[in-house]
Amino acid sequence: MSRQSGLQFYNIRFVNIVEIDDDNRRAFFKELCELFRRVSREYIDIFKDRPILAISPTMADGELNDFELRCFLLPSDKKEKFSRALKLGSPGLGAAGTTWRSNHGTVSEIYVDDKSDSLGLARISFHEFMHNKLKMGDEMHNDFDVGFGLAREQVSSERSIFNRSTAELTQKNAVVMAKALMENVPQYKGK
Ligand SMILES: [Zn+2]
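A: This is the predicted complex of the input protein with zinc ion.
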């Protein structure tokens, strides 16, 4: 089979409630792109006849296809106040992020404070995107087939003495995400 020409554009739209400054945002997006680059590589291997994916995280508002992703960045100390997941019926919130499937679409959100580093934010948002695309709840954390790594619960809270998130993306994580990436999971599109 030969690969179709061209690129499939893929937006990951972030809604910034917490005001991350430009430098931090750039560093965060760079780390996130690095994680998704590994997913793209698996995607190319699995779907040899599909266009190559151009995945770009953005703070810009705009159209969102049903296969694309969205995530709210909320202030950690006011997460209950600003949580879209709670508003949409989630019974509780995770330590560093929450994903909730509602009648108005799936919502992912992560909680940011001044100790959040760009790598940690990238890993936490990737973890929430795994819940989002794999349509899995807490059972994802210990699912052998999802491959632990960034699927582990501790990705959000377990930190080394240097205050860095210590969980790494595994190849299995990248493969399951590659398989799920183009599946339609309509996102919550509200404010
Ligand atoms: Zn989780």
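The pocket of zinc ion is lined by residues 94, 127, 131, 141, 153 (CB under 6 Å). The helical segments are 22-46, 79-82, 84-87, 118-134, 171-180.
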